[in-house]
Amino acid sequence: MIPSRISFDAEMLLFLALSFSAVIVTFCVGPTLAVAQSSNNNNNATTIPVNVGVVLDLETWVGQMGLSCITMSLSDFYSSNPSYKTRLVLNVRDSKRDEVAAAAAALDLIKNEQVQAIIGPQGSMQADFVIHLGNKSHVPIISFSATSPSLSSIRSSYFVRAAQNDSSQVNAISTVIQAFGWKEAVLVYVDNKFGEGIIPSLTNALEEVGTQVPYRSLISPSATDDQILQELYKLMTMQTRVFIVHMLPTLGSRLFAKAKEVGMMSEGYVWILTNGITDLLSSMDSSIVASSMQGVLGIKTYIPDTPSLDNFMARWKMKFQKENPSILNPTLNIFGYRAYDAARALAMAIEEMGTTNLTFQVMNASTNATDLDTIGVSQNGQKLLQELANMTFTGLTGNVRLVDGQLESSMFQIVNINGYAAREIGFWTLEKGLLRDLYSFNTSKYFINLISIIWPGDSTSVPKGWEISPNGKRLKILVPKKDSFFQFVTVTQDPSRNTFQVTGYCIDIFQAVIEKLPYDVAYDFIPFFFTDGSSAGSTYNDMIDQVFYKNYDAVVGDTTIIANRSLYVDFTLPYTESGVAMLVPYKDSKSKNAWVFLKPLTWDLWLTTGCFFVFIALVVWILEHQINEEFRGSIAHQVGTSFWFSFSTMVFAQSNHPSL
């Protein structure tokens, strides 16, 4: 019986061990939190797994790099804080570059996995609907790469942008435009939510510095090469040569390859990139950068170079190449740094929040309820959101702090693409504007004085930003046919060639002004008369009417500025006098006698002089009577001497007094 008893006990122990292991595994991988035992060399602590979701485009480089940085961030965080009780458990979903797939992945994570937060989605287009899901379920949506300003207009406090809003760079762009004095700029952007989001704020920033936007070029993300060429040919027919490009590198590389092909990367053109391309320049085809983007300016998010950042880059590269040996020379960019910081911020916030109520409240649904009606509401969502808002730490990208649900705006680098990479040529800060370096105390409105820039076509001279296109419109300038005052405007006809020569003072002034403009203007002088030589209008009002009705662009001549005409057209400042004068008779009634010099001496002046004469005599007598014998004697003598002294001071002021 003893062997049988021993066999039975062994079977029971084996069954209990397997059952306990199954319970542990079930709790660890289930949709709800579970308790697990973890041990390390220093202490044995009970850790609580907390489910979080990750929705990224794992077929793209940003998605692969972002997921790698997120996992590395959590590994570094818990290694440096082994005593923390919470551990984030990642539930990764691939959105496959599709908006619907991203929304479905987020819905699955919230409804079935009951995640406490979602890191992602990757793109601004995908984030639109996912933000509404987070708002409905009170699950924070933390995106490190959805930068479109239009997402901020969605009224959801559960959207956390662990990145900078695209609008934060518009003042840097407008300051560069202003520094070079360009008065017009064409916006070239991708036709989706990411591209359209920055346009209102960018247009306003340009208008504030006096730069107009004559045209907006929208390019579909799925545009063919022929469609891109068609749009570029349209841009070539315009006079503006300054283009601001806002799109992602996949479309941007195709755009610049075609721009190089049609000659729009030659001297005279200006291309300015937003950080949508510049921040990801390292992920673009280097051959496209070197052959088709030379001389391009760009706005790049500034990341200070620190020892911790260099250490992370070395460790990440070693780890990523070990896990992905087929990818040679992987490079990090701003989105990898932000993914790392976002994961760390979420881990810190969940640790601070605690795990007292990591549950979802599921509402009672009717028989016709959809998945949206049964996803439930997170009981700790508001508390987690508050912890994220209060989070402040020093991350890979510098000081990490959320302001109004997104990262604070920081400084930007101004770069110039030369060779295979972008060369730093300056900085922009909100406080100081354009700077040559961060330690510069002096700012300059003229960026050309700060650093040397190589422009498209290997030119070192600043482009004018405005050219007359071969297909551009020539100005039609109307000039009067005069029967007098030929010095102002003279129209001479050559019957043999059927041409006209226009000369005169007004014409010289107009041509001098045209030569002073920083760009070329094509124009034609058109005399205002019929083919038989008679004047086409009886008055100058008829010429002004032609400009008002837009039959002509301007009038050059001796046109008088009057109030009635100013209601219909604009005039330049007067550059000559009218020459009108009036002759009136004049009779000179002034006296010609010898005593005319006494006329300015009025009775008031004579009276004042006499009073001072007596006053001086009295003062002199008072001062000299006791000590000077000349002022003694009879009253008549004293009065005479005093008045004589007063009179002599006017006559002998520059010599000694004869009596003293």
What's a quick, concise take on this entry?
The chain is α/β, with parallel strands linked by helices.
Structure commentary:
- There is one protein chain.
- The protein is built from 19 helices and 24 strands.
- Helices cover 38% and strands 18% of the residues.
- The strands form six sheets. The protein has an eight-stranded mixed beta sheet with strand order 8-7-9-10-11-17-18-19, sandwiched between helices. Strands 1, 2, 3, 4, 5 and 6 form a six-stranded mixed beta sheet that branches.
- It is extended, with a radius of gyration of 43 Å.
- 33% of the residues are buried.
- The longest helix has 28 residues.
- The protein has four domains: 237 residues, Rossmann fold (3-Layer(aba) Sandwich); 177 residues, Response regulator (Rossmann fold, 3-Layer(aba) Sandwich), CATH 3.40.50; 92 residues, Periplasmic binding protein-like II (D-Maltodextrin-Binding Protein, domain 2); 56 residues.
- The N terminus is likely disordered.
- With 660 residues, the protein is of the alpha/beta class.
